[in-house]
Amino acid sequence: MLVDGKWTSDWQPVQKADEKGRFVRQVSSFRNWITPDGSAGPTGEGGFKAEAGRYRLYVALICPWASRTLIARKLKGLEDLIPVTVVNPVLSDQGWQFGGYDGADADPLFDATYMHELYTRADVSFTGRATVPVLWDMQQGIMVNNESADILRMFDTAFEGLVPSDLRLYPQDLAAEIDALNAVIYDRLNNGVYKAGFASSQEAYDEAVAGVFDTLVMLEDRLTGDYLFGDRLTETDIRAFVTLIRFDAAYHGLFKTNLRQIADYPRLSAYMRRILDLPGVRETVNMDHITRGYYSIKALNPTGIRPVGPDHVTRALH
Ligand SMILES: N[C@@H](CCC(=O)N[C@@H](CS)C(=O)NCC(=O)O)C(=O)O
What we know:
Layout: E1 2-3, E2 6-7, E3 16-17, E4 23-24, E5 55-59, H1 64-75, E6 84-86, H2 116-122, E7 134-137, E8 142-145, H3 148-157, H4 175-197, H5 202-222, H6 235-254, H7 266-276, H8 287-294, H9 311-317
Bound molecules: glutathione.
Residues 25, 28, 60, 63, 65, 95, 129-133, 146-149 line the site of glutathione.
Protein backbone atom coordinates (compact mmCIF):
# COMPACT_ATOMS: atom_id res chain seq x y z
CA MET A 1 0.00 0.00 0.00
CA LEU A 2 0.97 3.66 -0.20
CA VAL A 3 2.13 5.51 2.90
CA ASP A 4 2.53 9.27 2.45
CA GLY A 5 2.72 8.73 -1.30
CA LYS A 6 5.48 6.05 -1.11
CA TRP A 7 4.92 2.38 -1.95
CA THR A 8 5.68 0.29 1.15
CA SER A 9 7.61 -2.94 0.75
CA ASP A 10 5.65 -4.81 3.42
CA TRP A 11 2.59 -4.82 1.18
CA GLN A 12 0.29 -7.78 1.82
CA PRO A 13 -2.65 -8.96 -0.25
CA VAL A 14 -4.49 -9.73 2.98
CA GLN A 15 -6.06 -6.56 4.26
CA LYS A 16 -6.55 -5.45 7.84
CA ALA A 17 -7.98 -7.72 10.53
CA ASP A 18 -9.76 -6.79 13.74
CA GLU A 19 -8.99 -8.22 17.20
CA LYS A 20 -11.00 -11.37 16.40
CA GLY A 21 -9.26 -12.06 13.11
CA ARG A 22 -12.05 -10.59 11.00
CA PHE A 23 -11.13 -9.12 7.61
CA VAL A 24 -11.63 -5.33 7.48
CA ARG A 25 -11.98 -3.58 4.09
CA GLN A 26 -10.48 -0.12 3.62
CA VAL A 27 -12.85 2.83 3.26
CA SER A 28 -12.59 4.66 -0.10
CA SER A 29 -11.11 8.16 -0.09
CA PHE A 30 -11.97 9.94 -3.37
CA ARG A 31 -15.68 10.65 -3.21
CA ASN A 32 -16.52 13.35 -5.78
CA TRP A 33 -19.53 12.93 -8.08
CA ILE A 34 -20.09 13.54 -11.76
CA THR A 35 -23.40 15.41 -12.10
CA PRO A 36 -25.35 16.70 -15.14
CA ASP A 37 -24.33 20.33 -14.50
CA GLY A 38 -21.15 19.90 -12.48
CA SER A 39 -22.72 20.86 -9.17
CA ALA A 40 -21.47 18.97 -6.12
CA GLY A 41 -22.93 15.54 -5.42
CA PRO A 42 -23.75 13.98 -2.04
CA THR A 43 -20.03 13.94 -1.07
CA GLY A 44 -16.83 15.63 -2.21
CA GLU A 45 -16.39 18.71 -4.42
CA GLY A 46 -18.27 20.02 -7.46
CA GLY A 47 -16.73 20.64 -10.89
CA PHE A 48 -17.33 17.25 -12.51
CA LYS A 49 -19.88 17.86 -15.25
CA ALA A 50 -21.11 14.92 -17.31
CA GLU A 51 -19.36 15.13 -20.68
CA ALA A 52 -18.65 12.53 -23.35
CA GLY A 53 -15.02 11.37 -23.40
CA ARG A 54 -13.96 13.33 -20.31
CA TYR A 55 -13.81 10.48 -17.79
CA ARG A 56 -12.01 7.12 -17.85
CA LEU A 57 -12.87 4.09 -15.76
CA TYR A 58 -10.04 1.86 -14.53
CA VAL A 59 -11.10 -1.67 -13.59
CA ALA A 60 -9.87 -5.17 -12.84
CA LEU A 61 -12.11 -7.84 -14.33
CA ILE A 62 -11.42 -10.11 -11.38
CA CYS A 63 -12.85 -7.50 -9.02
CA PRO A 64 -16.55 -7.64 -8.12
CA TRP A 65 -16.61 -3.97 -7.05
CA ALA A 66 -15.13 -2.81 -10.32
CA SER A 67 -17.44 -5.14 -12.24
CA ARG A 68 -20.53 -3.54 -10.86
CA THR A 69 -19.48 -0.21 -12.38
CA LEU A 70 -18.74 -1.92 -15.70
CA ILE A 71 -22.18 -3.51 -15.76
CA ALA A 72 -23.90 -0.19 -15.01
CA ARG A 73 -21.86 1.43 -17.81
CA LYS A 74 -23.17 -1.22 -20.23
CA LEU A 75 -26.78 -1.20 -19.08
CA LYS A 76 -26.97 2.59 -19.18
CA GLY A 77 -25.42 2.72 -22.67
CA LEU A 78 -22.34 4.70 -21.60
CA GLU A 79 -19.65 2.74 -23.48
CA ASP A 80 -19.04 5.47 -26.05
CA LEU A 81 -18.90 8.19 -23.40
CA ILE A 82 -16.68 6.57 -20.79
CA PRO A 83 -13.66 4.58 -22.01
CA VAL A 84 -12.30 1.76 -19.85
CA THR A 85 -8.82 0.53 -18.98
CA VAL A 86 -8.47 -3.04 -17.68
CA VAL A 87 -5.54 -3.95 -15.41
CA ASN A 88 -3.67 -7.25 -15.25
CA PRO A 89 -5.69 -9.75 -13.15
CA VAL A 90 -2.71 -10.73 -11.00
CA LEU A 91 -1.96 -8.46 -8.05
CA SER A 92 1.79 -7.84 -8.19
CA ASP A 93 3.96 -7.02 -5.19
CA GLN A 94 3.18 -3.40 -6.06
CA GLY A 95 -0.56 -3.94 -6.45
CA TRP A 96 -2.46 -3.72 -9.74
CA GLN A 97 -0.31 -3.38 -12.83
CA PHE A 98 -1.00 -2.52 -16.46
CA GLY A 99 -0.55 -4.83 -19.46
CA GLY A 100 1.31 -8.13 -19.55
CA TYR A 101 -1.73 -10.40 -19.80
CA ASP A 102 -4.28 -11.25 -22.44
CA GLY A 103 -7.09 -8.69 -22.16
CA ALA A 104 -5.10 -6.34 -19.90
CA ASP A 105 -4.42 -2.82 -21.20
CA ALA A 106 -1.46 -0.49 -21.03
CA ASP A 107 -2.22 2.78 -19.25
CA PRO A 108 -3.22 5.16 -22.08
CA LEU A 109 -2.97 8.33 -20.00
CA PHE A 110 0.40 8.22 -18.24
CA ASP A 111 1.92 4.97 -19.44
CA ALA A 112 2.00 4.01 -15.77
CA THR A 113 3.27 0.57 -14.74
CA TYR A 114 1.18 0.33 -11.57
CA MET A 115 -2.20 1.59 -10.48
CA HIS A 116 -0.64 3.23 -7.41
CA GLU A 117 1.01 5.77 -9.73
CA LEU A 118 -2.44 7.19 -10.48
CA TYR A 119 -3.11 7.51 -6.78
CA THR A 120 0.06 9.52 -6.20
CA ARG A 121 -0.73 11.68 -9.23
CA ALA A 122 -4.10 12.36 -7.61
CA ASP A 123 -2.58 12.98 -4.18
CA VAL A 124 1.20 13.08 -3.73
CA SER A 125 0.92 12.10 -0.10
CA PHE A 126 -1.82 9.48 -0.46
CA THR A 127 -1.93 6.81 2.27
CA GLY A 128 -3.95 3.67 1.62
CA ARG A 129 -4.45 0.82 -0.80
CA ALA A 130 -4.49 1.58 -4.52
CA THR A 131 -7.81 -0.10 -5.26
CA VAL A 132 -9.96 -0.39 -8.35
CA PRO A 133 -12.34 0.82 -9.63
CA VAL A 134 -11.06 4.33 -10.25
CA LEU A 135 -12.94 7.01 -12.14
CA TRP A 136 -10.47 9.53 -13.58
CA ASP A 137 -11.15 13.02 -14.92
CA MET A 138 -8.98 13.32 -18.04
CA GLN A 139 -9.71 17.04 -18.40
CA GLN A 140 -8.48 18.09 -14.95
CA GLY A 141 -6.09 15.17 -14.47
CA ILE A 142 -7.56 14.18 -11.12
CA MET A 143 -9.32 11.25 -9.53
CA VAL A 144 -13.07 11.72 -9.28
CA ASN A 145 -14.01 8.74 -7.21
CA ASN A 146 -12.73 5.31 -6.18
CA GLU A 147 -15.88 3.96 -4.52
CA SER A 148 -17.86 1.60 -6.74
CA ALA A 149 -21.14 2.18 -4.90
CA ASP A 150 -20.92 5.91 -5.76
CA ILE A 151 -19.82 5.25 -9.35
CA LEU A 152 -22.71 2.85 -9.89
CA ARG A 153 -25.14 5.48 -8.68
CA MET A 154 -23.70 8.40 -10.64
CA PHE A 155 -23.75 6.31 -13.85
CA ASP A 156 -27.48 5.88 -13.23
CA THR A 157 -28.30 9.59 -13.41
CA ALA A 158 -25.39 11.88 -14.33
CA PHE A 159 -25.34 11.21 -18.08
CA GLU A 160 -29.11 11.17 -18.56
CA GLY A 161 -28.99 14.34 -20.70
CA LEU A 162 -26.43 12.76 -23.05
CA VAL A 163 -27.73 9.21 -23.22
CA PRO A 164 -31.39 9.05 -22.24
CA SER A 165 -32.35 5.71 -20.72
CA ASP A 166 -35.59 4.23 -19.46
CA LEU A 167 -33.71 2.08 -17.01
CA ARG A 168 -33.49 3.47 -13.49
CA LEU A 169 -31.20 1.38 -11.31
CA TYR A 170 -31.92 3.40 -8.17
CA PRO A 171 -35.54 4.58 -8.46
CA GLN A 172 -36.58 7.00 -5.74
CA ASP A 173 -39.67 5.05 -4.72
CA LEU A 174 -37.49 2.03 -3.88
CA ALA A 175 -34.51 3.97 -2.48
CA ALA A 176 -34.98 3.04 1.18
CA GLU A 177 -35.64 -0.63 0.41
CA ILE A 178 -32.68 -0.78 -1.98
CA ASP A 179 -30.39 0.77 0.64
CA ALA A 180 -31.57 -1.74 3.25
CA LEU A 181 -31.13 -4.81 1.04
CA ASN A 182 -27.78 -3.52 -0.31
CA ALA A 183 -26.47 -3.24 3.24
CA VAL A 184 -27.25 -6.89 3.98
CA ILE A 185 -25.92 -8.13 0.64
CA TYR A 186 -22.76 -6.05 0.96
CA ASP A 187 -21.89 -7.06 4.49
CA ARG A 188 -22.88 -10.73 4.43
CA LEU A 189 -22.42 -11.75 0.78
CA ASN A 190 -20.21 -9.41 -1.30
CA ASN A 191 -17.79 -8.77 1.52
CA GLY A 192 -18.93 -11.90 3.40
CA VAL A 193 -17.04 -14.20 1.03
CA TYR A 194 -13.89 -12.11 1.52
CA LYS A 195 -14.39 -12.22 5.28
CA ALA A 196 -14.50 -16.03 5.03
CA GLY A 197 -11.52 -16.23 2.66
CA PHE A 198 -9.29 -13.86 4.61
CA ALA A 199 -10.40 -14.83 8.12
CA SER A 200 -7.45 -15.38 10.39
CA SER A 201 -9.38 -17.26 13.08
CA GLN A 202 -11.84 -20.18 12.97
CA GLU A 203 -14.39 -18.03 14.76
CA ALA A 204 -14.20 -15.28 12.16
CA TYR A 205 -14.45 -17.83 9.33
CA ASP A 206 -17.45 -19.63 10.90
CA GLU A 207 -19.24 -16.33 11.42
CA ALA A 208 -18.60 -15.18 7.85
CA VAL A 209 -19.64 -18.47 6.21
CA ALA A 210 -22.88 -18.56 8.20
CA GLY A 211 -23.64 -15.05 6.97
CA VAL A 212 -22.92 -15.98 3.35
CA PHE A 213 -25.23 -19.01 3.31
CA ASP A 214 -28.00 -17.38 5.35
CA THR A 215 -27.99 -14.60 2.77
CA LEU A 216 -28.07 -17.00 -0.19
CA VAL A 217 -31.09 -18.76 1.35
CA MET A 218 -32.76 -15.39 1.99
CA LEU A 219 -32.21 -14.37 -1.65
CA GLU A 220 -33.37 -17.74 -2.99
CA ASP A 221 -36.63 -17.38 -0.99
CA ARG A 222 -37.09 -13.79 -2.08
CA LEU A 223 -36.71 -14.47 -5.81
CA THR A 224 -40.30 -15.16 -6.73
CA GLY A 225 -40.08 -12.68 -9.64
CA ASP A 226 -37.34 -12.04 -12.18
CA TYR A 227 -35.37 -9.71 -9.93
CA LEU A 228 -34.96 -8.91 -6.26
CA PHE A 229 -37.57 -6.15 -6.54
CA GLY A 230 -40.02 -8.13 -8.67
CA ASP A 231 -39.96 -7.21 -12.35
CA ARG A 232 -37.72 -4.15 -11.88
CA LEU A 233 -33.99 -4.52 -12.39
CA THR A 234 -32.14 -2.36 -9.84
CA GLU A 235 -28.59 -1.74 -8.69
CA THR A 236 -29.16 -4.37 -5.99
CA ASP A 237 -29.34 -7.04 -8.70
CA ILE A 238 -26.02 -5.87 -10.12
CA ARG A 239 -24.48 -5.92 -6.66
CA ALA A 240 -25.72 -9.46 -6.00
CA PHE A 241 -24.80 -10.73 -9.47
CA VAL A 242 -21.09 -9.87 -9.29
CA THR A 243 -20.66 -12.18 -6.30
CA LEU A 244 -22.93 -14.95 -7.61
CA ILE A 245 -21.06 -15.20 -10.92
CA ARG A 246 -17.69 -15.59 -9.12
CA PHE A 247 -18.98 -17.91 -6.44
CA ASP A 248 -18.69 -21.44 -7.83
CA ALA A 249 -15.48 -20.77 -9.76
CA ALA A 250 -13.54 -18.85 -7.11
CA TYR A 251 -15.09 -18.36 -3.68
CA HIS A 252 -16.38 -21.89 -3.18
CA GLY A 253 -12.87 -23.33 -3.42
CA LEU A 254 -10.41 -20.55 -2.65
CA PHE A 255 -12.40 -18.72 0.04
CA LYS A 256 -13.74 -22.00 1.51
CA THR A 257 -17.39 -20.94 1.21
CA ASN A 258 -18.11 -24.53 0.30
CA LEU A 259 -21.31 -25.54 2.04
CA ARG A 260 -23.06 -25.31 -1.31
CA GLN A 261 -22.58 -23.88 -4.79
CA ILE A 262 -24.87 -21.41 -6.56
CA ALA A 263 -25.72 -24.31 -8.88
CA ASP A 264 -27.48 -25.91 -5.88
CA TYR A 265 -29.98 -23.03 -5.69
CA PRO A 266 -32.44 -23.23 -8.60
CA ARG A 267 -33.80 -19.70 -8.40
CA LEU A 268 -30.42 -18.08 -7.83
CA SER A 269 -28.99 -20.02 -10.77
CA ALA A 270 -31.81 -18.93 -13.09
CA TYR A 271 -31.52 -15.35 -11.80
CA MET A 272 -27.77 -15.30 -12.42
CA ARG A 273 -28.31 -16.48 -16.01
CA ARG A 274 -31.10 -13.92 -16.51
CA ILE A 275 -28.73 -11.09 -15.59
CA LEU A 276 -25.92 -12.61 -17.63
CA ASP A 277 -28.25 -12.55 -20.64
CA LEU A 278 -29.03 -8.82 -20.33
CA PRO A 279 -27.47 -6.91 -23.25
CA GLY A 280 -23.78 -6.28 -22.64
CA VAL A 281 -23.48 -8.02 -19.27
CA ARG A 282 -21.78 -11.19 -20.53
CA GLU A 283 -18.99 -9.03 -22.03
CA THR A 284 -18.14 -7.74 -18.56
CA VAL A 285 -17.52 -11.26 -17.22
CA ASN A 286 -14.06 -12.64 -17.99
CA MET A 287 -13.73 -16.00 -16.23
CA ASP A 288 -10.09 -16.30 -17.25
CA HIS A 289 -9.24 -13.05 -15.45
CA ILE A 290 -11.41 -14.05 -12.49
CA THR A 291 -9.83 -17.46 -11.87
CA ARG A 292 -6.32 -16.29 -12.75
CA GLY A 293 -6.65 -13.37 -10.38
CA TYR A 294 -8.14 -15.14 -7.41
CA TYR A 295 -6.01 -18.26 -7.62
CA SER A 296 -2.84 -16.18 -7.80
CA ILE A 297 -3.44 -14.74 -4.32
CA LYS A 298 -0.30 -16.26 -2.80
CA ALA A 299 -1.47 -16.02 0.80
CA LEU A 300 -4.35 -18.36 -0.03
CA ASN A 301 -2.85 -20.45 -2.83
CA PRO A 302 0.96 -20.45 -2.75
CA THR A 303 1.43 -22.66 -5.85
CA GLY A 304 -0.83 -20.52 -8.02
CA ILE A 305 -2.40 -23.67 -9.49
CA ARG A 306 -5.83 -23.02 -10.96
CA PRO A 307 -8.52 -25.68 -10.65
CA VAL A 308 -10.02 -26.85 -13.96
CA GLY A 309 -13.66 -26.59 -13.01
CA PRO A 310 -16.36 -26.34 -12.30
CA ASP A 311 -17.67 -27.21 -15.71
CA HIS A 312 -21.11 -25.67 -15.28
CA VAL A 313 -19.63 -22.19 -14.92
CA THR A 314 -17.87 -22.37 -18.27
CA ARG A 315 -21.05 -23.72 -19.86
CA ALA A 316 -23.15 -20.90 -18.41
CA LEU A 317 -20.89 -18.31 -20.00
CA HIS A 318 -21.21 -19.65 -23.55
N1 LIG B 1 -14.68 0.22 -1.61
C1 LIG B 1 -14.06 -0.14 -2.79
C2 LIG B 1 -13.39 -1.47 -2.66
C3 LIG B 1 -12.65 -1.83 -3.89
C4 LIG B 1 -11.65 -2.95 -3.63
O1 LIG B 1 -11.46 -3.42 -2.50
N2 LIG B 1 -10.97 -3.38 -4.71
C5 LIG B 1 -9.98 -4.42 -4.61
C6 LIG B 1 -10.11 -5.44 -5.71
S1 LIG B 1 -11.59 -6.37 -5.67
C7 LIG B 1 -8.61 -3.83 -4.80
O2 LIG B 1 -8.40 -3.00 -5.67
N3 LIG B 1 -7.62 -4.29 -4.02
C8 LIG B 1 -6.26 -3.90 -4.18
C9 LIG B 1 -5.58 -3.76 -2.85
O3 LIG B 1 -6.26 -3.96 -1.85
O4 LIG B 1 -4.41 -3.42 -2.84
C10 LIG B 1 -15.11 -0.13 -3.88
O5 LIG B 1 -16.15 -0.79 -3.72
O6 LIG B 1 -14.91 0.55 -4.86
